[in-house]
Design a protein that fits this description.
The chain is α+β, with helices and mostly antiparallel strands. The protein has 23 helices and 26 strands.
């Protein structure tokens, strides 16, 4: 779509208002790049995602975060070193990613599209813990970041203590009041000094490090602390070098995961964008229209007007039976606003942004062309008319049946006769191309053409003749008048002038006014029938809602009553069985008697279905399996190594099979050294390894283990294992093994504890 059309329809103006709901400059940049989707399937996916996110937006929390994408990319540059401030910015982002992964992960079970977001919200527990262990939130590297740094800083503290002790003793000399300007230790040029009166400076042996601004005080480093100050300078240089070494190591660790970090950060930005879209849409009650083959918007409002006016009048825009609409009526009647409303709503809809409507239907447009407003160009020496025609001529070759054309004041800016002739020719051209067309005009020939057209619907904006104020309503199958004579009369133009004006009206006006009067009568009757139908529709909808509620209540009461009767019969049966068993002495007789009564009792259960839930064991055609997932009327069931989707109505709930002790070769877990568990996957393919790893992690979690080891070696298997661990809900975090634990060919996994 052309940039000039997006600007004319105030597309970017609307997007800029969305930025108030974002939490990062990165999201604002993302919004700047938003453009309408040109693929219908992409629009459908985005709409589904936004609708699902709308349901959960009030249950998630996002706080402000920095744009760290470029920072992460720089970590791959040789010898680049992160600053402490940059590390803290990244840490804040990692924590937000973790929190969103947890909250969205819990919600995504009910909203499938959200799983697409959580898949790339990777876990960075090891990286997060590493940064926290090295950097203090107050903005410095911790003493505990390395043993060497701890030793250096301890030496600095000890040396400083000795320096201050020696300097304090100098203040105890007998002439201290006369020699020193104040009794405090100063710090100049990285060294501890004493404030000596300039007039007495020769009485203190040492090195001068400058004077005060008044010249009254000279700062002197006494001879007794020069060596200690030198020692402090050396220690601080060692401290800085050790800090740089620690930060370089941290930078390297971050650089190793930069691809996953960038992907996760972009997902975070997308979530923040969805948050802004949903919050903004909720502020004006935005909804999505259905995708169809015609245009029908009920209760539409211009999205920009919602931000600057409190009482925006909704309008209905309909292009149902015909693909063209020609809107007429007086100036300031709302024609241009209606045209812009359709244009901007169409663009936002194709961006996956809810629009301010009650309900509606919109087609998918590959192109939206606009000619609106004063197009005069002094720079290009073009008049208003020339600029309009130049713009139209530019897009005419690209018009087709998937194009929306919006033309304001068609035929204006030149001789009315020629302008009308050109306007009719353009309307015929768009008709031949089967385009969707919305046009506004004042020209009578265009109005008359529309009345006879089988492609264009005439419509008019309503105007109060008494107050001469617009009502901002559209009536269809009607043509409006500019009301120039009525306005002139209202403003005091003499009657004789108005009479002369009417005499000078072209002959065609009689045909026009005659047609208009007959249409007004038709419209009045039509609108009355529409209002009556709308009232009936509302009543019918209310009855449907009441019927559905009543039906649900009856079904619920039926289920409750059946369950109550069944439970009562079951209790009575079990009491009876216990009583009989007390009187029967033979075990064989007991079993035979119990089987007989169970067979008879089964009659009471006919027609009563047990609810099947995830994790239940079920039977299908004699084969037993476990329910893995439920979706509507279907269930995903694992029959041994085979997984299949089956209708729930075809399944029968059964008792779980007894646990069979596996042979040593079949056991997944391998116990080594007390409580440590490990699994060796090195001889397996990726698919075989993941098939072994999943039950291994589940069993370890079930047993309440805190840590397990996975041996995988290097290459694709290692990456596949760590990708699986990142998505496992049983895993808190994982790390590569230390040399004594097996090195980089192993991974230590820390499991969640409930």
């Amino acid at each position: 779509m052309r940039e000039r059309d997006l600007i004319k329809l105030e597309f970017y103006n609307f997007l800029s208002r969305m930025k108030a709901y974002t939490h990062s400059e990165a999201t604002e940049k993302y919004i700047d790049d938003i453009k309408p989707f040109l693929d219908p399937s992409a629009i459908s996916r985005q709409i589904t995602l936004v609708e699902d996110f709308m349901e959960v937006v009030d249950r998630i929390s996002i706080y402000n975060f920095e744009d760290v994408e470029e920072l992460v990319r720089r970590t791959t540059i040789k010898d680049y070193m992160l600053t402490v401030e940059e590390a803290l910015k990244l840490l804040k982002v990692l924590k937000l990613i973790r929190e969103l992964r947890r909250s969205l992960g819990d919600l995504s079970q009910n909203y499938k599209s959200l799983t697409l977001l959580t898949k790339t919200l990777y876990q960075f527990n090891f990286l997060e813990n590493t940064i926290e262990s090295l950097v203090d939130p107050r903005g410095f590297v911790k003493d505990s970041a390395s043993d060497e740094l701890r030793k250096i800083r301890q030496s600095i503290r000890d040396t400083e203590k000795e320096v201050l002790k020696r300097l304090e003793t100098v203040f105890s000399r007998p002439d201290a009041e006369k020699v020193f300007s104040d009794r405090f230790v100063a710090y100049r040029n990285g060294r501890y000094v004493l404030p000596v009166k300039t007039s007495e400076v020769k009485k203190v042996i040492g090195v001068v490090h400058g004077t005060s601004s008044s010249g009254f005080t000279t700062y002197v480093e006494p001879q007794s602390v020069i060596e200690l100050n030198n020692r402090l300078t050396t220690l601080r240089e060692e401290e800085d070098e050790e800090i740089r070494r620690i930060l370089r190591r941290l930078t390297s660790i971050i650089g190793e995961q930069h691809h996953r970090l960038v992907e996760a950060f972009r997902t975070l930005v997308r979530i923040d964008y969805l948050y802004a879209v949903c919050k903004l849409a909720k502020s004006y009650g935005g909804k999505f229209p259905k995708i169809g083959d015609h245009i029908e918007l009920r209760g539409a409002k211009h999205p920009i007007l919602l931000f600057i006016k409190e009482d925006v009048v909704p309008i209905d825009i309909r292009m149902v039976e015909k693909k063209g609409l020609v809107l007429t009526g007086p100036n300031t009647g709302g024609k241009t606003v209606a045209l812009k409303t359709l244009g901007l709503c169409s663009l936002l809809f194709q961006c996956g942004i809810p629009i301010p409507i009650e309900e509606g239907i919109l087609p998918f447009f590959e192109r939206v062309f606009v000619d609106i407003g004063d197009e005069q160009s002094i720079e290009q020496s073009l008049s208003t008319f020339s600029s309009h025609i130049s713009n139209v001529a530019e897009f005419l070759p690209h018009v087709d049946d998937k194009t929306l054309v919006l033309l304001d004041e068609l035929g204006a800016g030149t001789d009315p006769v020629e302008g009308s002739a050109l306007g009719i020719a353009l309307l015929e051209y768009f008709k031949d191309k089967k385009s969707f067309v919305f046009v506004t005009t004042h020209h009578t020939p265009l109005k008359l053409y529309t009345l006879r057209s089988d492609y264009y619907t005439p419509a008019s904006t309503l105007f109060d003749r008494e107050s001469l104020k617009p009502l901002y309503k559209i009536v269809y199958n009607a043509v409006g008048e500019s009301m120039a004579l009525e306005v002139a009369k209202k403003l005091g133009v003499p009657e004789e002038v108005l009479h002369k004006a009417k005499e000078n009206l072209p002959a065609g006006f009689e045909e026009y006014f005659s047609a208009r009067k007959s249409l007004e009568a038709y419209i009045e009757d039509y609108q009355e029938k529409i209002r009556a139908l709308e009232e009936e529709r509302v009543k019918l909808n209310e009855l449907v809602v009441q019927y559905e509620a009543l039906k649900e209540e009856l079904e619920r009461n039926k289920r409750e009553e059946i369950s109550k009767v069944v439970q009562e019969l079951k209790d009575r049966f079990e009491d009876f069985i216990r009583e009989v068993q007390e009187r029967v002495h033979s075990i064989k007789d007991k079993q035979r008697l119990k089987s007989l009564f169970e067979e008879k009792f089964a009659v009471y259960y006919q027609g009563v279905e047990e609810k099947i839930e995830q994790g239940d064991w079920v039977e299908l055609l004699g084969s037993k399996g476990k329910v893995l997932e439920l979706e509507g009327e279907r269930a995903k069931v694992s029959f041994g190594k085979v997984k299949a989707w089956v209708r729930i109505s075809e399944l029968k709930k059964v008792e779980p099979p007894p646990q069979v002790e596996k042979s040593d070769t079949e056991k997944v877990l391998e116990f080594r050294g007390g409580n440590l568990k490990e699994i060796n996957l090195t001889s397996l393919s990726v698919d075989e390894a993941l098939a072994k790893l999943e039950p291994f992690i589940e069993e370890a979690y079930r047993l309440g283990l805190k840590t397990v080891k996975v041996i995988h070696g290097y290459g694709p298997l290692k990456r596949a294992v760590q990708d699986f661990l990142s998505s496992s809900k049983s895993v808190v975090f994982y790390r590569e093994g230390y040399p004594r634990e097996g090195g980089a060919g192993t991974t230590l996994v820390y499991l969640r504890r409930d």
